[in-house]
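User: What would this chain look like folded?
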Amino acid sequence: MVEKMKAAVMYGPNDIRYEDVDRPVCPEGGFVLKVKAVGLCGSDIRNLTTDSKNGNYPYIYGHEVVGEVCEVYPGIDKYKIGQTIYVYPDAHCLKCENCRSGHNEQCTEIERYTDRPGGFAQYIAYTKKRVDRGATYVLPDGVDPILATLAEPMSSTYACVDNINVTLGDTVAIIGAGPIGIFLSILSKMRGAKKVILIDINQSRLDKASEFNVDYIINSSEKDPVKEVLRLTNNIGAHKVISANPSTAAQKQAILMAKKSGIVVFFGGVPKGELTEIDTNIIHYNGLWIYGHYGANSIQVQKAFELAISKDFPAKKIITHVLPLKDINKALELTKTGEALKVALLPNEK
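Assistant: Here's the prediction, encoded as structure tokens.
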């Protein structure tokens, strides 16, 4: 008889049902985790509220997974029963040209987390390929698994500020005050940025952001953010501008608020089919460097995990809500309205 477990199963856009499903069996050469905590990510919200699987349902999402090893295939000694580990969502091959050149995020032989059922469930199985490739990290004794769910969003933001070398004296403007914008703000200050300017249309999010040592906040539904950034920088502009939201309007604004010879990062992906109209003469004559950012390389993933669970990072302030998995629809609503900054879900608690 197949054992059952509880999971949050997607049947279509905005149709997520908490129900019984088959518990995964341990794959040959793999292992199974009892999920102790799983973060709710902005990409999860986008996936759960759109036809993300092109009608191929039911499906289980969830990729910010921390769990306890409860089953290991015979002969695998890399994992021990009872260990609590964080699993980075994507398994990079570590052998292709992109991986070998330090760009694991562009791996051509990647095993993506969307290829298999995710962590919005009591249990999740990982394959032999994951065992071979790693990107799993054991939590030290005494570390709260809830805090470790931040390691995944930390990895991409850590990589972003690392790649563009946010450094001492910089002015950094960040468009988007969700969890990613907060991460970018905190990390920029930790790296020595003199001014961090955070921009959003949601005042509730901006109010929460004020708790994280942000120098200036701008409500772009009330004020022109480009004019405000120029005013705050004596009409020079920001050294680094990061568009951290799914908006073509924000990408256009980012170009206009960067200083000459500055750097602009398109961090947040926009909806498929939407194009951003940009006056490329501004890029040309102002000597701007434009970067697209996605993911992190292997060492950045490791460093992000270590920082996320350290006392140097205000993880407990970022995770504003902890809910049982059965309340996932409530978690979605809290996050979409801005009442919640970051939600962690507990699949094995009622």
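The two ends are 25 Å apart (CA to CA). If you want, I can go into more detail on any region.
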